[in-house]
Amino acid sequence: MIYADIIIDISSDKLDRSFQYRVPERLEKTIKAGMVAAIPFGNAGRVCKGYVIGLSDKPKIAPEKIKEISEICSGEETTESRLIALAAWMRENYGSTMIQALRTVLPIQEKIKAKEKKYICLDISEEAGTQLLKELEQTRFKARTRLLRELLEKKRLDYTHAAKELGTTSAVVKKFQEQGIIRIEYDEIMRTSLNTGDISGERRMPLTDEQEAAVKQIQREWKKPSPKPVLIEGVTGSGKTQVYIKLIEQTLSQGKEAIVLIPEIALTYQTVRRFYARFGDKVSVINSRQSQGERYDQFKRAKKGEVQVMIGPRSALFTPFASLGLIIIDEEHEPSYKSESTPRYHARETAIRRAVLEHANVVMGSATPSVEAYSKAMNGEYSLVRLTTRYGSRPLPRVSIVDLREELKAGNRSVLSRELRQKMKGRFEKKEQVMLFLNRRGYAGFVSCRSCGHVMKCPHCDVSLSEHNNERLLCHYCGYETGKPRICPVCGSPYIGGFKAGTQQIEKVVREDFPEVRTLRMDFDTTRTKGSYEKILAAFAAHEADILIGTQMIVKGHDFPDVTLMGIVAADLSLNAEDYRCAERTFQLLCQAVGRGGRGEKPGEAVIQTYHPDHYSIQAAAVQDYQAFYEEEMSYRMLLDYPPAAHMLAVLGSGPEDEKLVQAMYYLKLYIERIYRENDLHIIGPAYASVGKVKDIYRQVIYLKHKDHKTLVHIKDQLEKYIEINSGFRKIYIQFDFS
Ligand code: ADP
Ligand code: ZN
Ligand code: ZN
């Protein structure tokens, strides 16, 4: 006997209110998640329709009380049906409950109003405001005076803050609004800032021959009976965006819609405006700065057919377009395409699955494709398209590698090598701009005792605290903050210091070496407030500074035509991360950083400073040789059975009690050994995760490696069942992570 879980109302947040129905024998073979079923509902013999969200062989209540499905309404497939089918696929392939998967995929209207942030903004000039303030100060309108005074200073105020701190009532707001003194804004979204910008300068640009050939090749692929996903390997500046735009044009002309995924960090005004320039108000953007309500509204507009192109990060993949024709994944290699919460899906695989369900096409692009995607292109699963020349035949920057060990030998202890400093000097003299990139991935600026080596750690997480402005120590995992101690808590020594390699330190060195140079810094500290990121980029573009110093934030998708020198301060910090992908990430970041330079008329140059000048990821990045890197990296992955040579499943356990967790994970490993007896499964662990404790929750992990993905999925299925019935896992949260 099979039972189906059926959900009747998918528009509300009551997704967990599903009902079980018996599946009649004649439907057992056809029924699938996502199908619309007619079911008896209530006692009055009423029939209504619902979505099948899952199937099981276990009744949740007494079997005689379970009613039977009347019918499958075939031909009534909707966008939601397909999204539910996608959720079922995600549940199956990544491991999660069906509810978790549905919540990821369906736009849910959740407590929207409460979450939406409202702002009061000054809508008159500063002079007019000051004048008005003077007048108001003479009156008895104290609340209005307070509000205006604060607005003149801050320009934009949080509504709740104003109500609480300044006693601003809705009557005051209304009055000011009527008088045109203020306007109300909701959580700032990209649309509004874009609409005020001038996009008239952007015209349709004819494709280059190479771009044209790429488009033709993709169109030929699409004409095939079962088109493959396309991977565009295109050097930085080759015009991948031009190609995307052309493909979107074609999709729209067929009455279909397109989704464009861009990593959050690259989702800037500069990238998005090119799509606006071409498609105008057919385009909508979602990003993580929007409130849940705003994102829900964007999805609603897409569903109603009010927009045809949705641009956004990972989650934009689930835009409920009625006839989706194309999914583009830009910067396909970006780690942010993998979800960090259950279901831990990868946008690339999930996009390909959605495309199958929708009969749509997938096009991915990158200058440095992920090893996973490229190996699929190599074995023919994807179709590969190459763009090898930069637009306008601009040469790639000339790159020199500086061995930092040699610098030390020569007595130079500065973070700037002699060569880099020399080149910077030259640029500043010519009034050209410089960027300095500090590769800090997998590295935190920890603080330790110089006498005994004690490292200051977060009391709630198994990570070291890092030093920020004003000698504050901060935990990047839980936000715990404390003052820097005067003496070491272990040995009492007063010599406590940070490891001086942060962006702040580099800025200080630059200022000392070049006192007349104007600097800008972009990192965790300077971009914490809203809008600051865009502001820094705009200021640099407007030549308000000669040098921009920053973390990986500065290497993504911005064109600064006057930057002619890119300095990479410490290329190999990311090589030390405990991850089999660290060489790949290093290579990708360096390529992107090098590719930033020389985009304008003047040729670019880059200096890579490193302690590992012979490492293949650095050597290959210096000459932007993807093929060389790929071959070396693949042989390493094959040797050690890392993806894509094999598949990996991480079973992550977490819980508040250390001992219980250790025990449960140990039993889990024994269980795996019992259910899978072939010796082609590689089991590693259990062991503490690389960060073994976060917010007082302990974390352990077991890694499973196998050649066949299906085997790992099968093991995951059995583990899910085992965990569900075993009381030892009651206070332990198990998550699955495939790679
Ligand atoms: P990629 O995404 O491959 O790094 P972009 O699409 O950002 O490359 O293009 C790089 C630069 O070249 C952009 O400034 C873009 O405007 C310009 N460009 C690319 N193709 C063309 C074209 N066919 N006509 C005019 N300008 C182009
Ligand atoms: Zn000490
Ligand atoms: Zn912490």
Automatic annotation (TrEMBL):
Q: Could you tell me which CDD domains the record lists for this protein?
A: DEXHc_priA (cd17929), SF2_C_priA (cd18804)
Annotated InterPro entries: DEAD/DEAH_box_helicase_dom, Helicase_ATP-bd, Helicase_C-like, P-loop_NTPase, PriA, PriA_3primeBD, PriA_3primeBD_sf, PriA_C
Cofactor needs? Zn(2+)
State how the cofactor is bound: Binds 2 zinc ions per subunit.
Q: Which SUPFAM superfamilies match?
A: P-loop containing nucleoside triphosphate hydrolases
Please state every residue range assigned to the domain named Helicase ATP-binding.
Answer: 221-387
- GO MF terms, alphabetically ordered: 3'-5' DNA helicase activity; ATP binding; DNA binding; hydrolase activity; zinc ion binding
Please indicate which superkingdom the organism of origin belongs to: Bacteria
Under SMART domains, the record lists: DEXDc (SM00487), HELICc (SM00490)
Alphabetical keyword list? ATP-binding, DNA replication, DNA-binding, Helicase, Hydrolase, Isomerase, Metal-binding, Nucleotide-binding, Primosome, Zinc
Q: Which reaction does it catalyse?
A: Couples ATP hydrolysis with the unwinding of duplex DNA by translocating in the 3'-5' direction; ATP + H2O = ADP + phosphate + H(+)
Which top EC class is given? isomerase
Q: Name a biological process GO annotation.
A: DNA replication initiation
Q: Which HAMAP family match?
A: PriA
The UniProt entry's sequence similarity note says: Belongs to the helicase family. PriA subfamily.
Protein name from the UniProt record: Replication restart protein PriA
